[in-house]
Every structure is written in C-alpha cells, then in structure tokens.
Amino acid sequence: MLVNQNGEGVSTVTKWSTTEEVPAGVGVDDPSGRPGPVVPGDPEGVAALTGREREVLGLVGVAAGNRGIAQALGIAERTVKAHLTNIMGKIGVSSRLEAAVFAYAYHDLISVPQGGGIALEGNARTSNSA
C-alpha cells in the first residue's frame, strides 16, 4: 500500500514531493525524474512473450478491439482471446484494461506492428483513407 506524507494509506497516487516517498519499482519514472503513476504488471514478463503476443499486446495498448486485432493480424478472434489470456498471465495483470495500461506504459519494450492505414474495426481509431 502507498502512503502519503502523513503516513496515511492512499488508494490513488497524487503529486509526490520527493522520490524517497515512493517505494522503488512502484511507478514508471518520467524524463524529469519524478515518479510516474503506478503501472500494473511485471515488465520482466515481456521477455516471455512470443512475437505474436507482443503484436497483440501492442494493439491492445492503442485501444484496438478483438475484431480489429484479428483483422489486422489475419487471425481469428478466438485466437486473439487465447493470446490475451496468455499475455495477461505472463505480464501479471488481471484485466484487459490493465494490459492496455501496461502496453501503453511499456510500449518501448513491445514490438508494435505498423498499421499501414488498416482500420481497426470495433475501435475508436480508424483510418481516414476512402
């Protein structure tokens, strides 16, 4: 559990005044050296992911739905679901939302396929091409 300057337990991370207040490994540091928000999962788990799992996780990190991921990668939706189950176990998260936050925070560790103008159906992001 995180504690604030007064030693009280907190459920959300607020602005920290020094890095000593945040336990090591709790968040992802930003370039300014300030501790960032708490990120779910274990970044060391990325090493255990297959190439395809990295592609799926990268697309989850940009808010792609299962149908859009399946179409972009040329696989079945059921296969996407199986990959997500495996991914979540390997990186130590318990929900798709946590997996998306993890992918966003650790995008530099994950190989993300180039969209090439592919519209990811069932997703907020789509191609502008006609």
Describe this structure in words.
By secondary structure, this protein is mainly alpha-helical. It has two domains: 1-38, no CATH class; 43-109, Arc Repressor Mutant, subunit A, CATH 1.10.10. 33% of the residues lie in helices and 3% in strands. It is built from four helices and two strands. Strands 1-2 form a two-stranded antiparallel ribbon. Strand 1 (2-3) and strand 2 form a beta hairpin. Helix 1 (51-60) packs across helix 3 and helix 2 crosses helix 3. The radius of gyration is 17 Å and the shape is elongated. Residues 11-25 and 116-130 have low confidence and may be disordered. Keywords: DNA-binding, Transcription, Transcription regulation. Residues 22-42 are annotated as: Disordered. Pfam families: GerE. This is Helix-turn-helix transcriptional regulator. It comes from Streptomyces monticola.
Q: Uncertain runs with pLDDT below 50, 5 residues or more?
A: 11-25, 116-130
Question: In order across it, which strands form the biggest sheet?
Answer: 1-2
Number of helices: 4
CATH homologous superfamily of the largest domain - what is it? Answer: Winged helix-like DNA-binding domain superfamily/Winged helix DNA-binding domain
- How many strands, what sense, and barrel or not for the largest sheet? 2 strands, antiparallel
Strand and helix order:
EEHHHH
Question: What is the approximate shape?
Answer: elongated
Let me know the average pLDDT: 74
Measured by DSSP, the beta-strand proportion falls in under 5%
In total, the number of strands is: 2
Query: How many structural domains are formed by the residues?
Result: 2
CATH C-level name of the largest domain: Mainly Alpha
> What's the CATH architecture name of the largest domain?
Orthogonal Bundle
Give Rg in angstroms: 17 Å
What fraction, in percent, of the residue positions are helical? 25-40%
The name CATH uses for the topology of the largest domain is: Arc Repressor Mutant, subunit A
Whole-Å distance between the termini? Answer: 50 Å
